[in-house]
Structures are given as C-alpha cells and as structure tokens.
Specification:
single chain; 243 residues; alpha/beta; OB fold (Dihydrolipoamide Acetyltransferase, E2P); 2 domains; 7 helices
C-alpha cells in the first residue's frame, strides 16, 4: 500500500449502513476497503487478518458493543466511531478528540473525517483541561487502543515518557502518556500526586501509615504493594482525607 492509502474495515450490524458506507468509501481514492463485519466476533478475525489502518466502528451492536472490539484484540488502527445520538458516547469522543459519525452518515461529514486521517486534526475544537470522573479516556495501552473508565483507575506510576496504570483487576499496564499529562488531565478532586513518580485515586485509599523521615505509606484497596508518599505531597493528601 502507498503511504496515502488507508486499508479500511467497516464494522456495523446493520447491512444497510454497511452498504451505504461501502459505497461512500469507494468514492475516496485514499480508502481501500479490505473487509466488513456485522459483529465484534467477525471483526476480531478480520482485524487480525487484514491489519487495517482505519476502522469505521459501530458502537451499539447486539451481543457485544464496538468498545469490546478494543478489549478483545490488539487494535492500532485509527478509529472512526459510528453511533446513533448518544450524549455519553459523544462526550467521550470529544474529551479524547476522536472522530465519530452520527447515523445517518452524510457524505459531507465523512469527507471531513477522511481529511482528518491526513492531518490528525482533532474532531472537536473544544477540549477540557480536566476531564470529569465519569468520563472515559482513550489510550494506547500495551500496544493496542483501550478505553479507560476513570472510576476503575486506581493508581499511575511514571515510566519515562510513558506510565504504568493499575486499572480494575488487570495487571500493571504500560500506556503512552506521561505522568504530567495524566496530572493535567485527571480531576484533582479524586486523583492526587503523592510522589514525583506516582498518582493515586484517593477513592481507593484504605489507610495511611506514618513512617520515618516524614514519609508515609499509602495502602490502596485491591493493591498489594503500598505506595510511598513524600513529605512534599503529604499536606495536600491530608487536606483531602482529613487525617
């Protein structure tokens, strides 16, 4: 494939939507359709087989949502979500500057989405400096794209230009965001930096143990290893937790 060609996969359970989108995709020289799927099960196999550059991905599908495709296979393609009007979903796209198409899909809106494949221009001109606790964050985690629900995010630790996250019941995961980027993004009502190399979600704080040299150990629910809080950050956490 030439650099200007994008291998394209369509994933939508409605045959009429697939048919119309297939026709519209054929009108763009830079898009080459390599397959289409009516379900996440079919899409998992096609992603592995075709290694697409772009996926038009429906969200609401019977059996499994479009988001689950990102959980079940390693996806590095650019995602253009397809959705009926859904305020919560659209908020997630705008917060993460992702592209989405509302059904019924218009040629004009599709043309803008395709143009962004070349420029990388965000979908929305508006981006909040801080996200809400109910939001989801779209990240490249261990080499594939994932949605992260902030209430399940327990802690983050620095790893150079990357960071590790402790999320839900999953093992430590490497993501392509620095700790500073996380600190700028996360709501400080819930997430607090306790060390130059660690941020915790204080909703998970189980207990705080005072140690020597004015340091503290922070124990989080569901996390075996405690975190060390430096003296510098103790005052801020004390104000939040009232201890």
């Amino acid at each position: 494939m030439t650099p200007n060609k994008f291998k394209t996969l369509i994933v939508d359970d409605e045959w009429l939507v697939r048919s119309e989108l297939r026709l519209m995709v054929s009108e763009f020289d830079e898009l080459t359709l390599v397959g289409e799927a009516a379900s996440v099960d079919q899409a998992v196999s096609l992603v592995q087989e075709t290694q697409p550059d772009v996926i038009f991905l429906d969200i609401q599908m019977p059996g499994a949502s479009g988001f689950e495709l990102l959980e079940r296979t390693a996806v590095s393609a650019r995602i253009i979500f397809i959705t009926a009007f859904d305020q919560y979903a659209i908020r997630a796209f705008e917060v993460n500057a992702l592209d989405y198409l509302l059904k019924p899909i218009s040629r004009e809106r599709l043309q803008k989405a395709v143009a962004r494949l070349h420029t990388g221009t965000p979908t929305s001109e508006w981006q909040a400096k801080k996200v809400a606790y109910e939001d989801v964050i779209y990240v490249l985690a261990d080499g594939s794209l994932k949605f992260i629900k902030l209430p399940l995010l327990k802690a983050l630790t620095a790893a150079g230009n990357y960071s590790y996250i402790l999320y839900g019941d999953k093992p430590k995961t490497l993501v392509t965001k620095t700790l500073q980027e996380w600190e700028d993004l996360l709501p400080d009502k819930y997430f607090v930096r306790i060390h130059r190399s660690a941020i915790i979600n204080f909703e998970y704080v189980d207990r705080v143990v005072k140690c020597e040299n004015y340091t503290h150990q922070i124990h989080l629910r569901g996390v075996q290893q405690p975190f060390v809080m430096s003296r510098r950050y103790a005052a801020k956490l004390r104000a939040l937790l009232s201890w």
